[in-house]
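Batch manifest, entry 17 of 40.
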Amino acid sequence: MNTTKTAIPTRTLILCAIFAALTAVCSQIQIPLPMVPINLALFAVHMAGATLGPKYGSLSMGCYMLLALVGAPVLSGFTGGVGVLFGKTGGYVLGYIISALVTGLVVHRWGKTWPSLLLGMVAGVTSCYFFGTVWFMALTKMDLFTSLAYCVFPFLAGDVVKVLLAAFLVKALDKPLQRGGWSVE
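Output type: structure tokens
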């Protein structure tokens, strides 16, 4: 019987923690809106998925979710806790795990090229919006168009900027991270 366990390298765990912390910081950089504030959290999610890959990018966002779940003020507006995480906009926050996974899968499959980074991040934000909007609609009983008007349409222009900036930084940091022995893959 083979009971060998594969340990996660310490540097990978450190990077997961760094991206969870970056997401917490980016969540506080916001423009308040009536239903859902605009913030930079998805920027950090894109970077986590593209830099850490699907497995560890998702793990990083899972750590972020656990911090929010236990009440750490890591969500937008320095909030946290079960009530906020499972509230009407919590689906978007939970969608960060899916977004990092999708982004990481695309980038891992096709490499850190401009097309794969952009495609992966657009697919990631789309998956987050899908999950979050379905969640929002289920809790608020609003129709699809109204939900999109509150939760998606106001954010699209900013998401283009977040995707472009995240792709640029992932490309810029890739070689230095590899040289320093911080590559995850």
